[in-house]
Design brief:
alpha/beta; eight-stranded mixed β-sheet; 6 helices; about 35% helix; about 20% strand; globular
Amino acid sequence: MSFEQELDTLQRVYAQYREDGDLNIAMREALHQYATDKGLTFEVREEPQHFFSLVADLQQQDSAGNIYLTRSSNDDSLANIAIAFPIDTNDSPQWFASAFSTFDLLSRDNVLCGVTLMGFTSLRGEGVGLETWENAIGIIPGKPAAFSRLPLLAQFTKSPSPTTFPLSAIFQISESAEAPSSLVGSSLLIAKAQKMLGDQEGVRVCTQEFRRAPRLRVEGPGVAEVSRRIICAYSEYVVALFDNFD
């Protein structure tokens, strides 16, 4: 199956109608099948009995409901770089299409860190899974995070914390010829993105820092290819950073 056919198949599943606030079970199953076909590591951060059975050594769960498809690097001591999209919100399909396209583009590159396609739990426009992942390191033992008290996530309360899944950075990508170019996120990644973009005019920039890992939302025309280059450059930065500690 060609990339275009794979993307079309997954987009049709992603766009299927669901009641507002429901988890996108069909998309999780479709991504599981895609990972199996491609020989990727598929890590499920959910109660597997609610969705599908996996080989035991691939069963990992967390309390946020996120899923991760990982293309590993040769150095498993480095945390992966994630390309994230909201898996349960289908009103902005370009976020999934752009994430999937960039993930595919990076399969042709020698990315020094592993690359993860991350579908994060998203309810009524809220990035529940992403924010739970972000704030997991600050949770007081025995005191649940605010999002974990949502009824829909009650089924995951016995699963391990998202702290068990480290990431070097998280990118969200939306390629659109109509949308104005914008960079929103950590100053470190914005600086690298601006270097790649050169002297482009009219790029909206908004800095927002994060505690656990730098993040960057990239929107506008041609951003999948630009994000590919940023991720490759950032993976080199991460490797150099760790080499300096050796």
